[in-house]
Write a structure and sequence with these properties.
The complex is a heterodimer of chains A (337) and B (85). Chain A has 337 residues and is α/β, with parallel strands linked by helices. Chain A folds into two domains: 12-179, 3-Layer(aba) Sandwich (Peroxisomal Thiolase, Chain A, domain 1), CATH 3.40.47.10; 188-335, Peroxisomal Thiolase, Chain A, domain 1, CATH 3.40.47. Helix content of chain A is 32%, strand content 23%. In chain A, strands 1-7-6-4-5 form a five-stranded mixed sheet, sandwiched between helices. In chain A, helix 7 packs across helix 8 (266-275). The radius of gyration of chain A is 19 Å and the shape is globular. The termini of chain A are far apart. Chain B has one domain (5-84): ACP-like (Non-ribosomal Peptide Synthetase Peptidyl Carrier Protein, Chain A, Orthogonal Bundle), CATH 1.10.1200.10. The chains are: A alpha/beta (337), B mainly alpha (85). Chain A binds chain B through residues 45-46, 227-229, 231-232, 235-236, 265, 267, 271, and chain B through 40-42, 44-46, 48-49, 61, 64. Chain A: Belongs to the thiolase-like superfamily. FabH family. Chain A: One of its GO terms (molecular function) is 3-oxoacyl-[acyl-carrier-protein] synthase activity. Chain A: Residues 116-190 form the Beta-ketoacyl-[acyl-carrier-protein] synthase III N-terminal domain. Chain A: It is found in: Cytoplasm.
């Protein structure tokens, strides 16, 4: 019988470069409180967020993704034609087809690439790192462009004290490519899908349409979440996931240069760092303070900041962990570009 | 071994002080966590998780909303310890 041929890719993969696109408009807590019944102090105490960025009207996730992607490709010393696969992690691409990845690829001149989106909310980027690593090592791609992007302002209720002050818009990107040394550790990932109701969209787009067609004035579907429940899951269960990612990579927490968790809320970040006993010399990403929670954008934006502000050495190790709606999570140790 | 109500109160007061800086002496049975002690929902969750470890009992998410006063929490932990014994 004829045996199917197979191929292998690079021995290892690593992040070659990062890029970012932060929307121009900075939104203060006072501006949020023009609609939300809250205060600057209340928001700072509960979330650590001082400002966030909002995309301009009509500025889509593709508009945000493209400049972040171009920056990452340039920094990697590559051309768009060198990219074999474009993966976009997002939950706020407002058309079903084509994918945000296809539109981003077309926009940046990487139309030849394989394109697909990943819909795992705040775990999207770290899921994407796992997929990119496997694509490269499995021989399915040589250079993968991974973008995490969300325009959360489309799906939040500005009057909801449980969410309105937390979220922002933005895109972060990474180019992942072949490496002679291990640059991406084993991914620890999984879910707790029985708890999906802890964070979900209040209605589907078709339910909204049907209600409008029936003559009603339905509320726009928005994200709703059970904050304290998510907080408990995110801190204590995700700390266990983070420990497993360190163990799988055979890296001690003291050997990290940076800890870059999903930028959900400063209270989650600080409590998780405490649970993990992250030492003082490890840079803990706190991009949330002026970026808000940008869902799939949060980890690559925070990572880009840690790298570009020179807080960590190239080749230093960072622990990434994404977690959120699904519930879903993923974590891995990576070498910094 | 099950703790007395006074021991649970003292242990809980320590956890509240550690999380919020509120003096342990201010954590009294009749006090409301939110209205009197001004403890927010995330700090409350932290106190609950630490209380689970300290007293070796389960306090599920669903139960946390029902813990309005310090007495509610002390009773919950005491009952959970009794049920386990």
């Amino acid at each position: 019988m004829t045996r199917i041929g197979s191929r292998r890719g690079a021995e290892y993969a690593r992040i070659l470069a990062t890029g970012a696109r932060r929307p121009d408009r900075i939104v203060t807590n006072d501006e949020i409180c023009e609609v939300l019944d809250s205060s600057d102090q209340w928001i700072r105490e509960r979330t650590g967020i001082i400002t966030r960025r909002f995309a301009a009207p009509g500025e889509t996730v593709v508009d945000l993704a493209a400049p972040a992607a171009q920056q990452a490709i340039e920094r990697a010393g590559l051309a768009p034609a060198d990219v074999d696969a474009v993966l976009v992690a997002t939950s706020t691409h407002m058309v079903s087809m084509p994918s945000a990845a296809a539109l981003t690829a077309a926009r940046i001149g990487a139309g030849q690439a394989t394109t697909f989106d990943l819909s795992t909310a705040c775990a999207g980027f770290t899921h994407g790192v796992a997929v990119a690593n496997d694509l490269i090592r499995g021989g399915s791609a040589r250079h993968v462009l991974l973008v995490g992007v969300d325009r959360m302002t489309d799906v939040i209720d500005p009057r909801d004290r449980g969410s309105a002050m937390i979220f922002g818009d933005g895109a972060g990107a990474a180019v992942i490519g072949p490496s002679d040394t291990p640059g991406i550790g084993p991914t620890i990932w999984g879910g707790d899908a029985d708890q999906w109701e802890a964070l979900y969209q209040t209605a589907s787009w078709t339910e909204y349409r049907d209600a409008v067609q029936a003559g009603g004035e339905p509320d726009w579907p928005v994200l709703t979440m059970m904050g304290p429940k998510i907080f408990r899951w995110a801190v204590w269960q995700m700390a266990d996931v983070a420990r497993k990612a360190l163990e799988a990579a055979e890296v001690d927490v003291a050997d990290l240069a940076a800890f870059v968790p999903h930028q959900a809320n400063i209270r989650i970040i600080d409590q998780m760092a405490k649970q993990l006993k992250v030492p003082e010399h490890v840079v803990v990403a706190r991009d949330v303070v002026d970026a808000g929670n940008t869902t799939a954008g949060s980890i690559p934006l925070a990572l880009d900041r840690v790298v570009t502000e020179g807080q960590v050495p190239s080749g230093g190790l960072a622990l990434l962990i994404g977690f959120g709606a699904g519930l879903s999570y993923s974590a891995q140790v990576v070498a910094l570009p | 071994m099950a703790h007395t109500q006074d021991e649970i109160l003292a242990g809980l007061a320590e956890l509240v002080a550690e999380e919020t800086g509120i003096p342990a002496g201010d954590v009294q049975l009749e006090k409301s966590f939110t209205d009197d002690l001004d403890i927010d929902s995330l700090s409350m969750m932290t106190i609950v998780v630490n209380a689970q470890d300290k007293f070796d009992v389960e306090i599920p998410d669903e139960a946390v909303g029902g813990l309005k006063t310090v007495q509610d929490a002390v009773s919950y932990i005491s009952n959970a310890e009794t049920a386990k014994a």
